[in-house]
Amino acid sequence: MQSNLCSQLHSSLHTDSLTMLRFLTLQPMGSCYFEEMNASITDYLNEPLDRVLNTLESSECIRFEDSRIALTDYGLDYVEMNN
Question: Which domain of life is it from (predicted)?
């Protein structure tokens, strides 16, 4: 799935996706609450947070667990491929 993500993203969304995924790699257990993410990185995004989250979820790079956003193995692979 991560290869599909590269082909469907234009540059600003690609950058925002990497920003968000890298943020998750720095969180305990690779997950955080939406409010934490919103407060921490929204100022650094070019695209709306909801759009980036929807793109990453549809590409299986993240998943929503209860009220937390969690990094998946695909998401980690995507970060490593684009490091």
Answer: Bacteria
How many domains, in total, are found in the chain? 1
Give the predicted TM-score (pTM) of the model.
Answer: 0.84
Q: Are 56 and 21 in contact (CB under 8 A)?
A: yes
Range of the domain at 17: 2-81
- How many helices and strands in the chain, by DSSP H and E? 5, 3
The answer to whether 79 and 48 have CB atoms below 8 angstroms apart is no
Side-chain-side CA neighbours of 82 within 13 Å: the count stands at 20
Q: Which residue has the tokens 């709306």?
A: 48
Write the pLDDT tens digit of every residue in 2-56.
455 555 555 667 899 999 999 999 999 999 999 999 999 999 999 999 999 999 9
CATH label of the domain that carries residue 27: 1.10.10.10
